[in-house]
Amino acid sequence: MILHRLRTELVFFLKSAFGNVFTLAFAKVALPVLVLWEILPRAGLVPGGLIPPPSVVTISFWELLTRFGLVGHICISLFRFVAGFLIAVALAIPVGLMMGWSMLVRKHTLPFVQLLSPIPPPAWVPLTIVVLGIGYSMQIFIVFLGVFYPVLLNTYTATRDTNRRYINAARLFGASELTILRQVVLPSSISSILMGMKIGTAMGIVCVVIAELFGASSGLGWLLSESKDFYRIDRMIVSMVILGSMGWFMIELLKYLEARFSGWKAGEVSG
Fold first, then answer.
1. Residue spans of alpha helices (H) in 68-102
2. Which domains are present in the chain?
């Protein structure tokens, strides 16, 4: 029964994720672009050194995969991203709930959030290197900063704007404040929280690259910089495609969670 359920969920996720990308409309655009990309450099109409054709990029991908430890670089970047992402989400959601729920907490924390959130994560890099040094702590912290504020602000806004009818109805039936927060406010806010996590995913991928450009000796960001130093544009494209694929997969996973956990809101809107 459990295996059948897991298989059903996996099929649903794969259909949802890949069905949104690999469509006939996408193929009508992608295939001509790939053909032109292959032909123009080989015909000398554009410089092949600046725009390597897809066949060269594919060969470079295979070389990186089989001879230069591409899987290790991917795993290291994933570790830095996932560690920063999970820490940020674990802190941002409860803090955002408290800010949206309690006026006392909001008065004491919102000014700091409004002051600090506009600071771009790259601006923190020099100070973070001085305090934490060059290593995993610094890199994970930069990713944390990229993810934390989008999740925090979306959680805070959704909690603050929760429909008061639901809260009043729960109080009418004698629910405690904690019960209301956990069983009314949080489910009502889940869609906005997941939207913040999607934004945080995009920011986190950017921050992984930024963090790995400073003092790292592994990871996709380091590989991107190393390829630039040796003028290997084909390898740069490979790194960029993999980074984009990582972000796409994470966002599709969050969209799947949103469909599973906040589908009831569609009924609320339609009703």
1. 70-101
2. 74-264 (1.10.3720.10)
